[in-house]
Amino acid sequence: MCRNLSRYALVFLFLALSGLIFLLRNIHTVESWNCHTISALYQLQSRIHSSFISVNLPTFYHNRTFCAHLGQKPSPEDELEERYLLDSIAWPGPPPRSAPTALRQTSDPVHSLFAILPTKGGREWHVGDQLEALVQMHDFQGRPKRYGGDFLLARLHSPELGAGVAGKVLDHRNGFYSALFPLLWVGSAHVEITLVHSSEAVAVLRRLREERPDRVFFKSLFRLGFLSETTVCNMCLPPDQQPLCNYTDLYTGEPWYCYKPKMLSCDTRVNHAKGGYLKHLITNKEALLFQSGVNIKVCIHASGPDRINVLPPRKEVDSSSVKPEPIELAPSGYYHMESWRALGGVTMRHFNESSAITQCLRNKVINMYGDSTVRQWFEYLIALVPELKEFNLHSPKNVGPFMAVDSTHNILLKYRCHGPPIRFSTVMSSELRYISNELDGLSGGPNTVVVLSIWAHFSTFPVEVYIRRLRHIRRALLRLLDRAPGTLIVIRSANLQALDQEVSLYNSDWYSLQLDKVLRAMFKGMSVLLVDAWQMTLAHHLPHALHPPPTIVKNMIDMLLSYVCPEKKKSQQK
Questions:
Q1: What is the distance between the alpha carbons of residues 487 and 499, in angstroms, rounded to a whole number?
Q2: Orientation of helix 463-483 relative to helix 76-88, angle to 10°
Q3: How far is 206 from 270, CA to CA, in rounded Å?
C-alpha cells in the first residue's frame, strides 16, 4: 500500500509542476482571473526578484555611441551644432601613457604656487583695472608640470567687505595657468585659487561619463493586483540581454527603457525611482586621484602676497602708458556687503520684505520646472511669504508636483520635476513629464513666468544626451514665445557643490561646468534671462553645496524677482 501511495505522490507532484508551468506560460490569461486566485508563490517569486535587483544589473559594452546617439536622428543642422558644442567644451588631457600615471606624478596643490603679477610700471591698483595671477602646477615630488588640463577655480574676495567675484582661468597647457579678475570695489582684495581636480582625475571622469552611463541606475515597480515586480530602468540599456519595455516619449522621442517584468506586461508600470549608485568603478590607483583634503578642492598657496589694496577709479587716463587690450572679463555680477550686484545692464533689486515679493508677484502664474535646485526656490518662497498657501496635492515629499496659491493677490506658484533621468526617491509614472511637453501646454502671456533648472541629473550621461534634451526644451520655448511673446523665461544655471571621492564620480563640478557651458551656448541670443548660480556660489565665501545656503538663495530669488519686476525708469515714474 505504501508503494501505491508513493506512486500516487509522484503523479500528483508531476501534475502540480505541469500546472505551474502552464500558468507561467499563460500569464496573460491568469491576469484576468480574480486577484485572490493568484498563488502566494508568485508574490514570493516577485519579492525574491526585487531583493536581488542590485545583483542583476546590465553589462555595458563600453561604447560611447550606444548611449549618446539614442533617440530621434538629428538633422544636419543639429549635428553641426552638436559638433560645435562638443568642440567648445573640449578639455586638454595628460599625454597618453602606456601605464597609468602614479600619484606622485600628478598635480599636487601643496607643492603648486601662484603669484600676483604687478601692474605695468608698478603702479597702484584701481577700480576698473584687471588683476592677473599666474599659477604654476607641480606634482607631489615638487617637479613642475609640463601639461595642462587641471580644473582650477579662482575667486577674488574681501571678508571685511563681504565682497567677492568669480575669476576666469586660462589654461596655457604647459603647467601654467592665468587667473584673471576685474577689480570692482574699493578696499582689500584677496586672491584664492583652488584645485578641484588634477588633469589626471579629469581624464578618469571623462572616461566614466562616456563609458559608464549606468553608474547611476533606476528602477520601476510593476503591479497588477497582488502581483508585483521591480526591474532596472535607464536611458541606455543593452537590448540584447533581456526583453525591454520601451517608454520613449511620443512627442520628443526622448528614450527611456525598463527591463520587461517576467510575469507582467509593460503597461503595469506604477512608478519610477533612483535605484542606486554602482560601486568599484575605478581602480585603487585611480582612487588616489580623488582624496578629500589632498587633491579635491584644496587651495593653492601664494609664493608672495596674496592680496592687494584697490583704490577708487582713476580720474584721468595716462595716455603715455596705454596698456594692451586686456582679455575680456564679463562677470554676471559680484557680492558687496553680502548682496549680489548684477552687471551687464540689469538693475538688481532687493526684496527684503514679504510684502514686496507679494506685490511683485501679484496676478502672476509662476511655473517652475526642473530638479531639486529650483524646487529649493519654491520652498524658499512659500516659507518667506505667509500669504502663499501650499495646496495639498498629496504628492510625495521632495518630489512633487507642488502648488501654492495666494487668492488675495491672485498668485499661483507651481513646481514640477523634469522627466527621466530624475534621481528622486519615487515618482509616480503618471507624474513623469518632460519639460518641453509641459511648455507646449502653457498659454503664456505677460503674467506668466517660466523658471527652468535642469542639469544635476544629467552628469552621468554623455553630453550628447544633455544637448538633445535642451534642444527639445529650446524648441518648446520658441513655440511658447511665438504664441505668447510677453512670457518671461528665466533659467537657473548649475552651481558648485561639496565634493568627496564618491560624489566626484557621479556629480563632479567638472561635469556641471561642462553642462553649464552647453546650456549658456544653446540659449544665447534667445529672449531668455539667466540667474548665474555658478558665479553666485563661486564668488561667495560660504562652503559649496548642491542646495546653496539661504543667504545665496535669497540673492538668487532677488535676481529672479528683479527680472519679473524690473525697476521702473525715472521717466516712467514721472
A1: 37
A2: 120
A3: 35
What residues contact 216, with CB distance under 8 A and at least 6 apart?
274, 275, 276, 277, 278, 421, 423, 460, 506
Sorted by sequence, the CB contacts under 8 Å of residue 437 that are 6+ apart come out as 249, 251, 252, 476
pLDDT of residue 60: 52
Specify the DSSP element, H or E, that contains 189: strand 187-197
pLDDT computed for residue 68 by the predictor? 61
**pLDDT at residue 101 in the model:** 87
Q: Shortest CA distance to 439 belongs to which of 508, 380, 487, 387?
A: 487
Cβ within 8 Å of residue 523, ≥6 positions away: 470, 474, 491, 530
pLDDT along the chain (574 residues), means of 10: 49 57 44 36 38 48 57 88 97 86 96 94 89 98 97 98 98 98 98 98 96 94 97 88 93 95 97 94 97 98 96 74 61 97 91 97 98 98 97 87 97 97 92 97 97 97 96 98 97 98 97 98 97 98 98 98 87 46
Q: What pLDDT digit, counting tens, does each position of 508-556 carry?
A: 999 999 999 999 999 999 999 999 999 999 999 999 999 999 999 999 9
Is residue 388 a contact partner of residue 376, using CB atoms and an 8 Å limit? Answer: no
Instruction: Write out the E strands in 288-374.
Output: 298-302, 307-311, 333-336, 339-342, 365-370
For 132, the grid coordinates are: 592677473
Helix (H, G, I), strand (E, B) or coil at 167: coil
| Residue 475, C-alpha cell as written in the block | 524648441
The one-letter amino acid code at 480 reads L
Those residues with Cβ within 8 angstroms of residue 315's Cβ, 6 or more apart along the chain or in another chain:
none
User: What residues are paired with 204 via a beta bridge?
Assistant: none
Q: What amino acid occupies position 370?
A: G
Residue with cell 583695472: 129
Compute φ and ψ for 115, nearest 5 degrees: -140, 140
**Of 499, 502, 412, 415, the residue nearest 454 (C-alpha):** 415
Cβ–Cβ < 8 Å for 183, 130: yes
Distance CA 57, CA 215 (A): 10
Quick one: how many helices (H) and strands (E) in the chain? 16, 25
Amino acid at 100: P
- The x, y and z cell numbers of residue 135, run together, are 599659477
Cα separation, 457 vs 506, whole angstroms: 9
Cα separation, 125 vs 191, in Å, equals: 14
Q: How does strand 488-492 pair with strand 307-311?
A: unpaired
Q: If residue 244 lies in a helix (H) or strand (E), which one and from where to where?
A: strand 244-246
Which ranges in 423-549 belong to alpha helices (H)?
435-440, 463-483, 501-507, 509-522, 533-538
pTM for this predicted structure: 0.87
Let me know how long the chain is.
Answer: 574
Tracing cell 564668488 back to the chain, one arrives at 539
